[in-house]
Amino acid sequence: xxxxxxxxxxxxxxxxxxVLMELRRYEDARNAFGRAVDADAxxxxxxxNLSFVLSQLGDFDGALRETRRALELEPLYVPQKFSxxxxxxxxxxxxxxxxxxxxxxxxxxLAGEFEFDAPVLDRLFEELTPGVQQPAPAxxxxxxxxxxxxxxxxxxxxxxxxxxxxxxxxxVAMAAVLLGDVFAKRGLxxxxxxxxxxxxxxxxxxxxxxxxxxxxxxxxxxAGDAAPLADELAGRVRGDVEVLVARARxxxxxxxxxxxxxxxxxxxxxxxxxxxxxxxxxxxxxRLGDRSAALAGFNAALQLDPSLVRVxxxxxxxxxxxxxxxxxxxxxxxxxxxxxxYPAAALALADLVRRSESPRAAIxxxxxxxxxxxxxxxxxxxxxxxxLEDGRTVQALEAFERVLRFDPEHAGALYYQGAALARxxxxxxxxxxxxxxxxxDPAGPYAAQARxxxxxxxDLQHIFATTAG
Length: 469
Prior knowledge:
With 469 residues, this protein is mostly helical. The protein has 26 helices and no strands. The longest helix has 22 residues, at 447-468. The radius of gyration is 26 Å and the shape is globular.
């Protein structure tokens, strides 16, 4: 009824999407949420719901994009933390980049051919309306529902179901594992690790808890602690692809690339058509220095799933290493076509075109990326460098000052700020910037050049002072 009266109602389309998602009609739900976003680009809830259904459809990069867009619109909508949080209302940027944060993909692209049909909607609500009041689900049913919610990305609902299940006497270990899964999905790997260990304290041989602990340890960078667990689990649970993948990642992290490759081959024998296994095989081959095998693995993964953004990026890096710059550029551009806010691909493409074409070409790439994500400090620093090399010193200094306003210890911005100041013959300030670089990271990539330039700047400062006198 609402859509019959107001066909462009974002709230109504969002409601249709929720109904379709409950019915597991994920393609149609995606289209409905897309219509909601198209009707109201600032509707955070629709962006979140769209991210959930994209995750269910396997489009994890798209899901991440929609989650990030929703957080930009309403940062407190869910308890999720990003590495950079800036209150935009207090910013007065001097670089003229005015992005439309919610205009990255139009609703027509997302909605496809989904058309509203009032009788269909009536039937949907009839399907969802029970004839009689159903009893509350048992503890086991609540845990199953929690697992389903986790799979859909509905983490708050999953937490509520785990809480209900625990109150009804659900097994403590099973509930702790699900809590760990929720925290891991949110990137809170320390919290996740605690929950998995709570589960293993109750049930030491629980394979799900052990696998979760291994993944959390890897995410925290503690591969050495994960290695004995992965070996023990692989010996105890035979023929499980996920266990083999986890062990392969651990072996790779502890510099045992050959051991990782053995695990991958065993997993591929069990699941020969999984693109993530080819991706992992390519990463291991690259670590072993077998470039042809790495390229074959990346291409095999992309043949199975051309939407793998990270694979396109890593393929570009491999092509760049072997000097095939046109292929590298094509791969980076493909990654950015799929996910315009992918910083690694944008920075790699900008650096490539800066070296192979011109700084001005790099500026175009970086400005396009910053229109989608204006608060990426690495991109701002790279933009400053490209502006400096293009002879636009004043604009370059604006970029560096903006980076340093949020990260006063950004070595790259300080180094190139010093270069820009020296170009303006502000040698004292340039030397101060370079000395700060050396102080922050004496053995870093900029330190040696900073020392050399600081000495030259002092000499020039003395020469100009003597001439003026």
